[in-house]
Design a protein that fits this description.
Layout lengths: L1 E7 L3 E8 L14 E7 L3 E8 L2 E8 L3 H9 L16 E8 L10 E2 L2 H9 L8 H15 L4 E5 L9 H4 L5 H5 L9 H15 L7 E7 L3 E7 L2 E5 L20 H10 L4 H10 L2 H6 L5 H9 L3 H25 L4 E5 H6 L1 H9 L10 H4 L6 E2 L8 E4 L4 H14 L2
Parallel strand pairs: 1-6, 6-8, 9-12, 12-14
Antiparallel strand pairs: 1-2, 2-3, 3-4, 4-5, 7-8, 9-10, 10-11, 13-14
Length: 403
């Protein structure tokens, strides 16, 4: 089964093609036959395509995205990166869709009703849902009536208990859909499943804290294979300090900036999402590597940014442990989680009281999909390479089995 995955963000799009047996899913994620990355600059798309041991790069001027996507997808069945004979070889297309609201608790086959819901929910994810829908419409135009599947970032968290989902605000607000939705769900679910596989245990028997630490950051409490709490909320702005997002702050700060400093809602949106977090505090970058480098060179604001990051990570990790009433496994994933050994070590320090012991040699050896705690640690600590694209492909395979 040839499965095409489109993972569209506000400023980039990743695509890949998997070849999966019709009768079973492989235990280990296969390498894609074909991969493409598009970075959308204001008037030029920077494109990178990998297949057949080759990597091609080009810049494409554009006014709308769909013609660029069509040009890139044509490289699946023509030219040096050809891996299939023609478009009919693609049996299903899976899309990452950021927001499914309360409508969708699972991945679904795309229908007119699903497209309308994605469009309606664009108010809750204005930077993502519109481009996710645009990708679906582009595939309809390019590939016709090929089955398409929407895999929602919010779906894994859609069944968290009301005590975690409902904010202590006027209840009428909650009835209007203002609640905790949570994000990074595809990554959190994949990492929980991979943890159980690595440990050789039943996922339903494990209490897991997954730490998705990248430019966007979130934690999830997973019990019995289900998310019971997560740190992102109504939007991805809530929770941990991130690359350029503030994470949780006192709401009165916003009222103060509106009333006393004359800010508009648009200015607050821009500064909290694009000019806060590591970038806002350090003044250096939203990239953890560059902030760490600046801190090591003595930059006081970069040092402060790291201290705030670790403090807030400890605070929310501790709250997640309390919600679960203890944990069996602690998982680090995404760009920072997978690559920043010092951040992992500092995150674990404050949990030594409960018997968590990190193997410092394993932690510093660029681990991937392995346990990095000591044999006598009461908590298994793992680094897992999250593979959201493969998780989306798995969802597509499962849904096609139901037809």
């Amino acid at each position: 089964m040839k499965i095409l995955v489109l993972n569209a963000g506000s400023s980039s799009q990743k695509s890949c093609l998997y070849d999966v047996p019709d009768d079973r899913l492989p235990q280990q994620p296969p390498d894609p036959l074909w991969e493409a990355q598009i970075d959308w600059a204001p008037t030029v798309a920077e494109v990178k395509v990998k297949a057949n041991g080759q990597e091609l790069k080009q810049s494409i001027a554009y006014e709308s995205r769909s013609p660029v996507m069509e040009q890139i997808l044509n490289m699946l069945w023509s030219g040096a990166t050809q891996v299939i004979a023609d478009p009919s070889a693609i049996q299903v297309v899976g899309h990452r869709v950021v927001h499914g609201g309360q409508d969708y608790h699972d991945s679904v086959r795309v229908t007119a009703e699903v497209k309308a819901a994605i469009d309606r929910l664009s108010d809750l994810a204005p930077a993502h849902n519109p481009v996710n829908l645009e990708g679906i419409q582009a595939i309809e135009a390019i590939l016709g009536d090929v089955p398409q599947v929407a895999v929602f970032d919010t779906a894994f968290h859609a069944r968290i208990p009301d005590s975690a989902a409902i904010y202590p605000i006027p209840y009428a607000w909650s009835e209007r859909g203002i609640r905790r939705y949570g994000f990074h769900g595809t990554s959190h679910r994949y990492c929980a499943q991979k943890t159980a596989q690595i440990l050789g245990k039943d996922l339903k028997d494990l209490k897991i804290v997954t730490c998705h630490l990248g430019n966007g950051c979130s934690l999830a409490a997973i019990q019995g294979g289900r998310s019971v709490h997560t740190t992102m909320g109504f939007t991805p702005l809530d929770g941990l300090m991130m690359g350029s997002r503030s994470g949780s702050i006192d709401p009165s700060i916003l009222l103060y900036m509106l009333r006393e400093e004359g800010y508009t809602a648009e200015q607050l949106d821009q500064e909290l999402n694009q000019a806060s977090g590591l970038l806002g505090v350090s003044g250096v970058s939203n990239d953890m590597r560059l902030v760490t480098q600046a801190a090591e060179q003595g930059n006081p604001r970069a040092k402060l940014a790291l201290e705030i990051y670790i403090h807030r990570l400890h605070a929310l990790m501790g709250s997640i442990v309390a919600i679960l009433n203890g944990i069996d496994a602690l998982v680090f994933t995404a760009g920072v989680g997978e690559n920043a050994a010092d951040i992992r070590a500092r995150a674990c320090e404050n949990f030594a009281y409960m018997g968590l012991k990190l193997d410092l040699e394993k932690n510093s050896s660029r681990p991937r999909n392995q346990v990095i705690s000591t044999e006598d640690s009461t908590v298994e600590v793992l680094v897992i390479h999250t593979q959201e694209d493969w998780a989306i492909a798995q969802e597509c395979w499962e849904i096609l089995q139901e037809v």
